Amino acid sequence: MVRYFFLGASLAPLTIGAKSAVSFEDFIQRLEINLKKSDFGKVIAGRRLIDIMNIRALLSGQRLDVRGNYSEKELDEALLVKDGFPQYVFDFLGQFETNAAKLNHFSGLLAVFFREETKSSRGFLKRYFIFEREVRLVLTAMRAKSLGRDFTEVLQFEDLNDPFVAQILVQKDTERFVPPVEYMELKDFFIACGPDPWQQHKVFTEWKFARIQEMGEEEEFSIDSILSYMVCLLLVEDWLALDEQQGREALRACAD
User: Fold this and answer.
1) What's the rounded Cα separation, in Å, for the pair 158 and 163?
2) Ramachandran region of residue 17, left (φ > 0), alpha (ψ -120 to 50) or beta?
3) What DSSP character marks residue 85?
4) How confident is the model over 50-88, as pLDDT tens digits?
5) φ, ψ (nearest 5 deg) of residue 108
6) What is the helix (H) or strand (E) element at residue 189, kind and residue range?
7) Which of residues 91 and 248 earns the better pLDDT score?
8) Any idea what the Cα angle at residue 132 is, between residues 80 and 145, rounded to 5°?
9) Number of other CB atoms surrounding residue 112 within 10 Å
10) In degrees, to the nearest 5, what angle opens at C-alpha 242 toward C-alphas 241 and 243?
């Protein structure tokens, strides 16, 4: 495994609530210069989730997150010529004729994304995609239970034979949803915060930041530690950019 001693040592520690010493754009430029081509490919893969979410933003006429691999113009062109994404993206979107239909089924594209990217990834990326998927499933279940929605409906695009999904579905008729033990903290945090979605979002971000930092600590100065830093930098920037209304929307987006 390649060690990036100079690059790793140059990265200032990150803290939620404090401005980072380097912007995400400058950080990516630094990686492009210093990483092996194969390792920079992992950076591209790690940012693909932003691109996927930007597809939804593009279809709905919302502002895109500029930290993805593509600008708005590049993303529009990639979707038009069917290039620049894994084939599963085009296969899924090609099932629907209108933007409205694509948006209505967008959770299906996310399900395919996590399934395919987890299968093809190793190390930190694999751990991160598993974690991100499971967190989203738990938040989806918590929101569905609070709104009285059918778990079978909100999880219709998931693999119903997956053990993690099965743990959620078995509770579809219970009065309260109890998350899998490794995510029990999420429910505890939200109960402690009360009904304030902004406070919930802050606590959730701090918890997620700590978990992702832990994922990258196994191999210091490795590509995994750098990828962990990248995701944590995204969270730091998100925290500083969000206001209360956006905090509500961010939580809702994770559960949709």
Assistant:
1) 11
2) left
3) S
4) 999 999 999 999 999 999 999 999 999 999 999 999 999
5) -70, -40
6) helix 184-193
7) 91
8) 105
9) 17
10) 125
Q: CA geometry: angle at 39 spanning 232 and 21, to 5°? A: 35
Angle at the Cα of 234 (from 177 to 221), degrees rounded to 5? 110
Rounded to two decimals, the pTM is 0.90
Q: Where are the domains of the chain?
A: 22-120, 122-256
Separation CA 68–CA 206 (nearest Å): 22
Question: Where does residue 110 rank: exposed (0-12), middle (13-18), buried (19+ CB within 10 A)?
Answer: buried
The one-character DSSP state at 18 is S
Question: How far apart, in whole angstroms, are the C-alpha atoms of residue 119 and residue 77?
Answer: 27
82-105 pLDDT tens trace? 999 999 999 999 999 999 999 999
Residue 83 CB: number of other CB atoms within 10 A? 9
Whose tokens are 């979002």? That residue is: 201
Residue range 12-62, pLDDT digits in tens? 999 998 999 999 999 999 999 999 999 999 999 999 999 999 999 999 999
The residue with tokens 């209360």 is 244
Q: What is the pLDDT of residue 250?
A: 56
Signed CA dihedral, 142, 47, 30, 9: sign only: positive
- The structure tokens 């492009």 sit at 32
Check the CA dihedral 228-70-133-91 and report its sign.
negative
Burial of 59 (0-12, 13-18, 19+ CB in 10 A): middle
For residue 129, the SS3 value is helix
Residue in 63, 9, 16 with CA at minimum distance from that of residue 213: 16
